[in-house]
């Protein structure tokens, strides 16, 4: 029952109520090593990639691991 109540409460919320508001952003030109270091230091799993004030993508820890695995 509590789960149902929580779902109803969240469903009535707006994205702005639950989103992270103070997140780091990175440039598409940053080196992967620097991105990985930032993720570890800040304990985050994804970073928005911004170029000229426009969101151009998102990089995740999974993306980095996949790139390392490919060599």
Summarize the structure.
By secondary structure, the chain is an alpha+beta fold. The protein has helices at 2-11, 15-18, 32-42, 61-70; strands at residues 46-51, 54-60.
Overview of this protein structure:
- With 71 residues, the chain is α+β, with helices and mostly antiparallel strands.
- Helices cover 49% and strands 18% of the residues.
- It has a two-stranded antiparallel ribbon with strand order 1-2.
- Strand 1 and strand 2 form a beta hairpin.
- The N and C termini lie far apart (49 Å).
- 3% of the residues are buried.
Report the sheet with the most strands, covering strand number, pairing sense and barrel closure.
2 strands, antiparallel
Fraction of residues in β-strands: 15-25%
Q: Let me know the average pLDDT.
A: 92
User: How would you spell out the order of helices and strands?
Assistant: HHHEEH
- Helix content bin: 40-55%
CA-to-CA gap between the ends? 49 Å
Q: Give the spatial strand order of the biggest sheet.
A: 1-2
- Specify Rg, calculated over alpha carbons: 16 Å
Q: How many helical stretches?
A: 4
Structural class estimated from helices and strands: alpha+beta
Parts with pLDDT < 50 across at least 5 consecutive residues: none
| Quaternary form | single chain
Number of strands: 2
Shape: elongated
List keywords for this structure.
single chain; 71 residues; alpha+beta; two-stranded antiparallel ribbon; 4 helices
SSE arrangement:
Elements: H1 2-11, H2 15-18, H3 32-42, E1 46-51, E2 54-60, H4 61-70
Antiparallel strand pairs: 1-2
């Amino acid at each position: 029952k509590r789960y149902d109540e929580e779902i109803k409460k969240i469903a009535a919320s707006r994205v702005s109520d639950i989103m992270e508001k103070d997140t780091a952003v990175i440039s598409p030109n940053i080196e992967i090593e620097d991105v990985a270091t930032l993720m570890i230091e800040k304990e985050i799993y994804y970073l928005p990639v911004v170029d000229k004030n426009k969101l151009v993508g998102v990089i995740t820890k999974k993306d980095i691991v996949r790139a390392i695995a490919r060599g």
